[in-house]
Amino acid sequence: MAYMTPVMAQAPGTATNEDTYSLAAQLASALFTNASAYEEPFVSPSSYDIVILSESYIVPPAVVAIPPRKLNLDIPYSRETFCSCVLYAKAVLGVTGTWGNAKDIQPTTQIPKVGSVIITTEGGGHVGVVTAVASASVEIADANFYSCASSSRTLPLDYPLTRGYKDY
């Protein structure tokens, strides 16, 4: 496990550019070194804030591995669920509540992860659940892309009909 060397600031909150560069290099090295040690898939935070813990040292926050969400892809067929992309996504994720129509769901991020809902403009509005993320594509499980049936599809990350992703 990599450990970071504290960076001394010249005065409280006034690190030099050289100190900042050194800290950033150490932080990147520690994050990627530690990420490869996990056996479970590693999900990194979307941003890395630098926390000032005292007047003398600047250290990074703890990085925590978040296990992927469990998805239920073995849903028994029902016309109601398989004829609605929204009801199917809710069943796969095991969530309740009203989402409204697919076209009205607003994305909260452009970064996919397993268990996120992908929101597209297909058919005027469509949703599915991200089941895998690769370097250039996402795999999704959805229903009613093909009339009243479930499907598994691979879409490129730059798919022009993707509006974004939302976590529930």
Structure in words:
This protein folds into 2 domains: 7-59, no CATH class; 79-166, endopeptidase domain like (from Nostoc punctiforme) (endopeptidase fold (from Nostoc punctiforme), Alpha-Beta Complex), CATH 3.90.1720.10. 19% of the residues lie in helices and 23% in strands. It contains 3 helices and 8 strands. The chain has helices at residues 17-35, 79-82, 85-93; strands at residues 7-8, 51-52, 57-59, 117-120, 126-133, 137-143, 150-156, 162-166.
Sheet with most strands: 5 strands, antiparallel
Shape: globular
Query: How is the CATH topology of the largest domain named?
Result: endopeptidase fold (from Nostoc punctiforme)
Percent helix among the residues? 10-25%
The CATH class of the largest domain is Alpha Beta
Counting DSSP E segments of at least 2 residues, the number of strands comes to 8
Low-confidence stretches are: 1-17, 31-57
Strand content: 15-25%
User: Which value, in Å, is the CA radius of gyration?
Assistant: 21 Å
Distance between the termini: 33 Å
Question: How many structural domains does the protein architecture include?
Answer: 2
List its salient traits.
single chain; 168 residues; alpha+beta; endopeptidase fold (from Nostoc punctiforme); 3 helices; 8 strands
